[in-house]
Design a protein that fits this description.
The longest helix has 41 residues, at 910-950. The strands form six sheets. The chain has a nine-stranded mixed beta sheet with strand order 14-33-32-31-15-27-30-29-28, sandwiched between helices. Strands 17-16-26-25-24-23-22-21-20 form a nine-stranded antiparallel beta sheet, with helices on both faces. The chain has 42 helices and 33 strands. The termini are far apart. The relative contact order is 0.08. By secondary structure, it is α+β, with helices and mostly antiparallel strands. It catalyses: ATP + H2O + phospholipidSide 1 = ADP + phosphate + phospholipidSide 2.
Amino acid sequence: MADQIPLYPVRSAAAAANRKRAAYFSAAGPGPGAERPNRYQLEDESAHLDEMPLMMSEEGFENDESDYHTLPRARTMRRKRGLQWFVCGGWKFLCTSCCDWLINICQRKRELKARMVWLGYPEKCEEKHPRNSIKNQKYNVFTFIPGVLYEQFKFFLNLYFLVVSCSQFVPALKIGYLYTYWAPLGFVLAVTIMREAVDEFRRFQRDKEVNSQLYSKLTIRGKVQVKSSDIQVGDLIIVEKNQRIPSDMVFLRTSEKAGSCFIRTDQLDGETDWKLKVAVSCTQRLPALGDLFSISAYVYAQKPQMDIHSFEGTFTREDSDPPIHESLSIENTLWAGTVVASGTVIGVVIYTGKETRSVMNTSNPKNKVGLLDLELNQLTKALFLALVALSVVMVTLQGFVGPWYRNLFRFLLLFSYIIPISLRVNLDMGKAAYGWMIMKDENIPGTVVRTSTIPEELGRLVYLLTDKTGTLTQNEMVFKRLHLGTVSYGTDTMDEIQNHVRNSYSQTPSQASGNSTSSTPPRKSQSSAPKVRKSVSSRVHEAVKAIALCHNVTPVYEARSTAAETEFAEADQDFSDDNRTYQASSPDEVALVQWTESVGLTLVNRDLTSMQLRTPGGQILTYCILQTFPFTSESKRMGVIVRDESTAEITFYMKGADVAMSSIVQYNDWLEEECGNMAREGLRTLVVAKRALTEEQYQDFESRYSQAKLSLHDRALKVAAVVESLEREMELLCLTGVEDQLQADVRPTLEMLRNAGIKIWMLTGDKLETATCIAKSSHLVSRTQDTHVFRPVSSRGEAHLELNAFRRKHDCALVISGDSLEVCLKYYEHEFVELACQCPAVVCCRCSPTQKAHIVKLLQQHTGKRTCAIGDGGNDVSMIQAADCGIGIEGKEGRQASLAADFSITQFKHIGRLLMVHGRSSYKRSAALGQFVMHRGLIISTMQAVFSSVFYFASVPLYQGFLMVGYATVYTMFPVFSLVLDRDVKPEMAMLYPELYKDLTKGRSLSFKTFLVWVLISIYQGGILMYGALVLFESEFVHVVAISFTALILTELLMVALTVRTWHWLMVVAQFLSLGCYVASLAFLNEYFDLAFITTVTFVWKVSAITVVSCLPLYVLKYLRRKLSPPSYSKLSS
């Protein structure tokens, strides 16, 4: 039936045209157009899907063809371009196209291509490749000053001051002294430029250090020293132990006998375990190093790409007969940024600079600007509009007489205090103060603030994106459980296993081998005969042996003395337990092998071809490794075929996730249930199975396997198919449970964050099972919630169906893998993000570093909410830099994340206090401070407006020179700035009631509503102060200035007292200090004040009366408001 349905039913003209075109191209034969027909078909397919509603039943998906053909027709209609099209917006389209074209020409990106690299001959490269230098700087010598100034004057506030300050150079507009305008602006700029210059210089030094590291390069004339930045594609580079690999290379030779080496990849993928890499066997077999130049060989490498977990290439030696071809995969590569952990390696450089995997996976750091700064920027624009309106009103009431436009500008300058320049200074100093408080907090020791501009962001977070390994977990595995189907062993019964293993090996060797040999040959008859139940002892022994053999762990012996390499090789044979460490590509593996050692079966040696185990009795068993099948995220299992040297038996051992293994092992009734039980305890489960092979079976398999490995097309599929032919009816041996220990207090911290209304997403490079496991054990997903595991999808249609299936679920956590995520975002970005944001928790596994950053950016675009990323490895850097607020943990995975972050902490649990206490108070304090500084400017502008309107709209300043500068600085700065010490609840309360944090995300502490309240207060107070002074002054104008200015200062001090919620002794000091300064300065301000009048009683009572009238109503209102509708925090603190 399905065969008869035409895949692309064509009814539209455009599609028919496509078909003709496709036919034409296919007739043209292979050539540049040969690939096109395929593309047209795909385009059509996506067209149908575009037209479909996302919520659609699966039947509809198959049968609904009615709207399949609307889009191509729409396209043909769209192609008619005439005058109407041009007028309706075509000109816009043409302009943008031209601009895009120009930009493309200016920054033409080189197309990335596959390449042939000749060993040791960089000059043979056909293309020019980028330099191998690292550059993390934001600016260069020429762009530094313009760049920093642009970043500053991008803000409306600063730009406005620049214009106002420049206007003072025009004599007709000059009001007061130049320093009253230029001094504050110069101060703000000087501080910013200094701070940026220091940061930039540090970045420059770090880059220089990395780029000038020296490496040995192999040439025909011998070894030469070469700088990291001078390495080219095709160079043969020698890297010593513990040295960083400078560029992406193919691994040719090593000093290790085994022909393999270990590398540390923690700065690339965040995994702390060592990875085993294998040298190309053709070059490893050459007698000496110099022979690399005597052969004619090249490496064919695919084009540079971001995926750090895959590589396809071939190695070809031309001068042998017949030419030798070897397939290259990820295990033959050494990526830049990784570190050699054993031996010395020689590699040929295939990618440099911008084309290396590590650089392609890092994003450029952006300048982070806090939400509060953006909101204040909006408010300053509103104030500017008010300022213009006020000036226009003044000029209108004046009657547009004389040079009115000059008067308009003078009014603009007179009222320019509506927008206070001290706002930036105060906020920047406030930020510095918050940073200092965070670093001095004894409850979160070791916390470092690296970006001082965004502490308020910590109080506005809605999404927290966290890494798993090393952030939520300690990355330390402990073996907890062994289950054999009928019997289960926990941590307290491990000694029984030890006894079983000891008994198995203490039988006389002849007896043991006799049993095993007799059970092997009559295999064919066994299937029909009833199976003899094995004793528990032999089953335990089989299971332990399988765990001890099926892995990719290598024991490494550190030579205690500083011995030369030759002695090192002999020390290998001294299998002493105290200087042995295990290395593997995953900590689970190490935990399993350490456990087999604890029960008596010890792995003492391993190379590429053999493995040696030591029994409890000290006897050494040797096994020959015939094949290993490494773990991949698709297969979810790993296998090994070994031959026992003593009995020549061949056994295929396999272990993997229960999902993958349940279909491979023989039927049983307990596996699924036990896996579920272990997963609920938060254990990572592995199923272990075996199958005995005859020599013929193995030989047949080997020939098919090596043939599949050399194919160039669909290599992975063919290899998988051959391996699957062995994975049938395997004997289930046991189920193991390993625990990844969580960091201290992860559960209560996540609980607190959830109660604070923060949604937590876990983005990890780890496997799906592990990620789900940790999500449950850390209570990221609560006990009562379901989890929806998003099925792997590869095409648009599958994504469509799977999203619909997910939409039907309610209140369940989403678990999705990186590949499926990529597909969903490609076709249904908006729908996917919308659905995911409704989930209480999201877990993304198998995420690449760039994907992590991409998810952060998506959340920012689609929700507009503030995001925070927290991680501890080099693979988290992109995500940390992309988030509005990045937190790094100094962990086992190095300090790369903590250096790139805005805040660095030592433990995950500290994030609770950082957000609930410091984030919350920083935001509330800055909001209060910002509004108060604006109030300070508004009140004096109101007084100026009243003064001008009473005196026939004259553009004359009310307060001259120093009074204005003093008002914004000495007289009121300390009390206003002391608001950074204010707090509404005690830190303990804020931690106990995280719900208080939830209020902040609504941004109610600083909004147009609260701002309007302050504007009204300012207008009321300014009016009272000015009219009061005008009503009460008797003879001279000087008295008006004296009375109103003194009352103004007192009002400001009282208003600070009214705003404060919790008094600090420094606040009291600031109040009296400011008052003292003012009283003391009265003696010197003869030009403004009449000293004789100031000392009289009338002056005192008049000032007191005006001050009481301006402040008392506000105190009454505040008291009533606290009584009638108290804020949430006051209910707790009362």
